[in-house]
Amino acid sequence: MPDWVQTYVTILVAGAAATYLWRFLGVVYASRLAPDSAVLDWVRAVATALIAALVMRIVLVPPGALAETTLASRVLALAAGTLAFHFGGRTIFAGVAGSFAVFLIVETANRQGYFG
Amino acid sequence: MSAPPFDRASFRRGLRAALCTGGLVLCGSFIGFGALIQASGLSIGQGVFMTLTMWALPGQVVLVSMMDSGAGLVASALAVTLTAVRLMPMVVVLMADVRVPDRPFWMHMLVGYFTAATVWLESRRVFPAMEREARLPFLLGISIAFVPTMGGLTVVGFLIADLLPPLLSACLVFLTPTYFLLGLLASARDRIDWLSMVFGGALLLALQGAIPDIALMIAGVAGGTGAFAIARWTRGRGGHA
Known about the structure:
The structure holds two protein chains of two kinds. By secondary structure, chain A is mainly alpha-helical. Chain A contains four helices and no strands. Chain A has a domain at 69-116. In chain A, 77% of the residues lie in helices and 0% in strands. In chain A, helix 3 (71-87) packs antiparallel against helix 4. The radius of gyration of chain A is 21 Å and the shape is flat. Chain B has two domains: 8-187, no CATH class; 189-241, no CATH class. Chain B is an all-alpha fold.
């Protein structure tokens, strides 16, 4: 098998199949579940907690280019986004814009050495 | 009985809904992913192939770093599958939202394939005000708008990688947690949603240092279970969940 074929097979097996497995199990499991079952409330709570945990992990252990930024700018930006959401008509756009602006400002100020 | 007619108006509504804030954030994230592919030495074709076949950005980022470090097939598959477990509860919730009798099974499989955080959060936000029959066409619409667009933006990110200043690259990565948090805030309705968010975040904070590999799973399952238990218990005692 040539190298480039092997890379695509790796993506299919270690990437696509390893990901789709859980989606498939979700589809199968959902088909056996009554729509008003209490189990569904529990699954929804777990899904919500997982996304919240994922946010926290990206803040604590930033991947890729984000690793070059400070914890303070990430935390301040998310706090600002939450406030902007709350006072900006509860729209996702207001929150993302507020968070993005504060992230840029704090991170730029930091890189310019304004905080010593 | 035959399947209900496919609601084209809702499908088109889904296509248009791709232009939401979450969609814009997703665009930035996939440009960032394209830039990551370029920096890692993988090819443009491999990057697009990942986006189209995996359709789950956190897993894609993990796979890139595994392939980059020369990890074997089994180790890579394990690392990716750990990031994908969280998709299962999301699929279960979405399926319960969109299910109507007699839809063909392949349509459900397609919903499974499309399910990822952005589609999940947008759906959770708009579904309560939407008729059950309209939801599946809506979900297929927004997803069919998203997937090829993000494949294309992976290419764009690859091509402009060298033009991106480091701060902008960092911003593109930061968009993802920002949108996840805002999406959770916007779709939270009951006390159980707030409890799940707080518990999930707090547990990750407590566990990440001690057990970094499985902290995410534990925080999700334990946090969700705790929120569920408290919401049930307080409701049983006459409170409102």
